[in-house]
Design a protein that fits this description.
Strand content: 25-35%
Strand order of the largest sheet: 1-2
Shape: flat
Number of helices: 1
Distance between the termini: 32 Å
Radius of gyration: 12 Å
Oligomer: single chain
Largest sheet: 2 strands, antiparallel
Order of helices and strands: HEE
Number of strands: 2
Structural class: alpha+beta
Helix content: 10-25%
Length: 54
């Protein structure tokens, strides 16, 4: 699965009327330059880890 579009507003692999959650996370994290988000997808499992660095 291509992960690059998942942070776009309105993108969803589940259908219409979705796609705001990850967009909102991305927008919030842009305000914290020392934050990192790691996204993984393998064998139909999807995980994200958010880190805030000092």
């Amino acid at each position: 699965m291509e992960l690059s579009p998942i942070f776009e507003k309105g993108y969803s692999s589940k259908g219409e009327g979705r796609g705001l959650g990850l967009y909102n996370v991305h927008t919030i994290l842009e305000k914290y330059p020392k934050s990192l988000i790691s996204t993984r997808s393998a064998e139909h499992l999807f995980s994200q880890t958010i880190q805030f660095c000092k």
